[in-house]
Design a protein that fits this description.
Blueprint (H helix, E strand, L loop, with lengths): L2 H32 L1 H4 L2 H16 L18 H9 L5 H26 L3 H8 L8 H9 L4 H13 L6 H19 L4 H24 L7 H35 L16 H15 L12 H24 L6 H24 L4 H8 L2 H14 L3 H28 L24 H11 L4 E5 H10 L5 E6 L13 E4 L17 E6 H6 L11 E4 L3 E6 L2 H6 L11 E3 L4 E4 L5 E3 L4 E9 L2 E10 L6 E9 L4 E8 L2 E9 L3 E10 L5 E10 L12
Parallel strand pairs: 1-2, 1-4
Antiparallel strand pairs: 2-3, 4-6, 5-6, 7-8, 7-10, 9-16, 10-15, 11-14, 11-16, 12-13, 12-15
């Protein structure tokens, strides 16, 4: 048969599946285009800003960017980079990038399905890869794109690890697969846990099976070649991955700022019951059974559908293992890889103490080809009733999840004003949504503001909504990993997903400070949320305008700082006392706040009620630009205490520590810092 006839026959048999894929891609792009204001988050905007920066610099990496937990050499920001070469509309760039991601995923899965001989059921399951079948997959793979490269590398690594019939193209494709493994290794250790370690273990399990359990007297030569080729290719892929991982850890980490995996704290506790419970919660969460809050009318139906779908997947795995001997080699390979990959990622999450659903979501994606193998097996063995039940369950589950995904954008309006809610799509405050940031960006551009400050979940969103015209400095709010705006806004630049120069170069000219309504409500002392500087507000955001950035920080001098001082018992932190008075029992202490000050003369003023003569012992601590910690001890007596001190240079951190060493309780009525110096953002040291 001529090659054109083969192609014509191929598409004639499969065009309904590919048509469904195309409709799924159009649906996914339309959902984002229509509901962008409800689906965006700060992580997604950060990747856009990085793509624009790389476009301007014309490079693959940037030493003027503070990366997150991974360098992510090959990621969605490269798509943004090349689209920015031709387009300036950020929304259009993101929409086209999502379309590119979906097309690449569809092409990769189509090739994977053909190589693994998954048939029509495999193409049906491929529809899951082109639509947001769950919130985790839609947010982090399709729309944010941060996990898209891992899915891409995984599909190609599995497809190319099994030998073709002709040895010549196999060698060429193996070389391509080794190159992909090297590219994956440059991005960090996640690829090893997701792809290459499970791949090697799968090859070893298959060899052990065929040698000791499934040994056959007349083993086909083609099967022997496949087994040998799988072992060799898996070993070569792993060997290609390791040098790239070493380059990432030893070379790239020295030149670019990102949190290396080696810095992860291990919190291993042998708790088998806890492990199974965490894994169960993560699986159910990935497949749509649990969200951060529920739609009242359909939460029970959705949980039941998710549980039923998980039951079908689990039944498929058990059924295929029971009849493992009768499966094709490729199907044994996929089944073992899916189970081993899930076990490896679950164990890694358990060891690091970070059992997060999206971390194991990528390994759960391989359960979908297992479902296709299950459907094909039922069909081949003419088990029509079981086949129809499994197919109907999977179809109903997919339709229900897509309907729920479309309903959530409309549901945000009901909870957006309540700061206690967290968005169901991402870990960020609900005030992010309903177009509040878009309206704020339009007002800022209209009134000539181009530089400003905000905490992480609000900062980079303004840059995207303004098409890059507004440059934002991201502040720390209790740490870069805090999601709720209930902690005090500490006016220090966080070294996380922004320009490196922001750490030591403050903005010039008039600036603004943007706080969410929850953050503004926490500012009891009006250190930042002073109504006389308020220039704009909407139900979710407050914007304060200043003629210079120094004016923002000088506003706190002379204010009562008791509201942001932490109270400690001898064993733990008790609370952040929001009252005017701090009551210290014997051997209790207070600590804080971490402020940033310019050189100059200051006075620490404290009003204390101390019944004994022993008083309180304390110290002023500050850190200079060279990183050295300095401490100035002092003692407090009853009444008003004034402790003068001089800062000879700018300090990036200033704070106080006080301990009650007497046998009676004491009260600190007021704590103020008064001075003639001005405040700055930080020091000129590399983060």
């Amino acid at each position: 048969m001529h090659i054109t006839d083969k192609v014509r026959t191929f598409f004639k048999e499969r065009w309904p599946y590919y048509a469904a894929w195309l409709l799924g891609i159009i649906f996914s792009v339309f959902v984002f285009h229509a509901f962008r204001d409800n689906l965006l988050d700060a992580d997604m905007s950060s990747e856009m800003i990085l793509g624009k920066l790389l476009c301007e610099e014309g490079s693959l990496f940037s030493d003027n960017w503070l990366y997150s937990t991974e360098l992510r050499v090959f990621n969605v920001h490269l798509i943004y980079k090349y689209l920015f070469c031709f387009l300036s509309d950020w929304h259009l760039v993101r929409t086209l990038a999502i379309a590119v991601i979906l097309l690449l995923l569809a092409f990769s899965y189509a090739y994977f399905s053909e190589r693994m001989q998954l048939g029509g059921a495999g193409l049906l399951c491929g529809l899951f890869f082109t639509v947001p079948f769950c919130l985790q997959y839609g947010q982090f793979v399709l729309y944010a794109g941060v996990y898209f490269p891992h899915v891409f590398f995984m599909l190609w690594a599995l497809a190319l690890a099994v030998r073709f019939r002709s040895p010549v193209p196999s060698a060429a494709l193996l070389a391509c697969n080794m190159l992909l493994a090297f590219c994956s290794g440059l991005g960090g250790v996640r690829g090893a846990l997701l792809i290459y370690i499970p791949l090697v273990l799968t090859a070893l399990c298959l060899i052990g099976y065929y040698r000791y359990i499934g040994r056959e007297d007349n083993k086909p030569e083609d099967l022997t070649d496949k087994i040998n080729y799988l072992l060799v290719s898996s070993a070569l892929l792993f060997m290609s991955y390791i040098p790239a991982l070493i380059i990432n850890a030893k070379i790239l980490s020295r030149h670019y700022s990102f949190v290396n995996f080696a810095a992860a704290k291990q919190k291993f506790h042998f708790d088998l019951l806890g492990l199974f419970k965490s894994a169960y919660d993560s699986v159910v969460s990935v497949f749509g059974g649990k969200y951060y809050y529920d739609i009242q009318c359909d939460s029970g139906i959705r949980v039941a559908a998710a549980a039923l779908f998980c039951l079908v997947l689990l039944s498929a795995i058990i059924f295929l293992f029971v009849r493992f001997k009768r499966l094709k080699f490729e199907h044994k390979y996929i089944l073992l890889f899916a189970v081993i990959g899930f076990a490896c990622n679950t164990a890694a999450c358990f060891i690091t103490g970070k059992m997060v659903a999206r971390y194991i979501m990528l390994s759960l994606l391989m359960w979908l080809p297992v479902l296709a193998i299950f459907l094909n097996t039922l069909r081949e063995w003419q088990m029509k009733a079981a086949y129809n039940c499994a197919l109907i369950t999977a179809s109903a589950y997919l339709c229900l999840q897509l309907a729920v995904f479309c309903r959530y954008p409309f549901f945000h309006d009901n909870v957006v004003d309540d700061p206690g809610y967290i968005n169901c799509l991402v870990h960020c405050p609900a005030s992010v949504h309903c177009g509040y940031h878009k309206a704020a960006a339009e007002w800022l551009l209209k009134n000539g503001y181009r530089c400003g400050f905000a905490t992480f979940w609000h900062s980079n969103l303004l840059t995207e909504y303004s098409d890059g015209k507004i440059e934002m400095w991201t502040l720390r709010n209790g740490g870069p990993f805090r999601y709720l705006d209930t902690d005090w806004v500490d006016f220090r630049i966080v070294p996380w997903l922004q320009y490196r120069s922001h750490v030591y170069e403050p903005p010039r000219g008039k600036v603004f400070l943007m706080l969410s309504s929850a953050e503004a409500a926490q500012d009891k002392q009006h250190l930042y949320a002073d109504s006389k500087y308020l220039v704009y507000k909407n139900p979710g955001l407050r914007i304060y305008g200043y003629d210079s950035y120094e004016r923002i920080l000088d506003n706190r001098c002379g204010k009562n700082l008791n509201g942001i001082i932490k109270v400690y018992s001898p064993a733990k932190v008790l609370q952040k006392d929001r009252s005017e008075h701090l009551r210290l029992r014997p051997y209790w202490s207070v600590s804080g706040p971490s402020l940033v000050l310019l050189k100059g003369r200051y006075k620490l003023v404290m009003d204390c009620d101390i019944p004994s003569q022993k008083g309180l012992e304390g110290r002023i601590r500050f850190r200079t630009a060279d990183g050295k910690e300095h401490k100035l001890p002092f003692k407090l007596r009853g009444g008003i205490n004034e402790i003068p001190f001089i800062l000879e240079e700018n300090v990036s951190r200033w704070g106080i520590d006080i301990k009650n060493k007497s046998k009676r309780s004491v009260s600190i009525n007021k704590t103020e810092i008064v001075g003639g110096g001005k405040s700055v953002i930080g020091s000129k040291q590399r983060p």
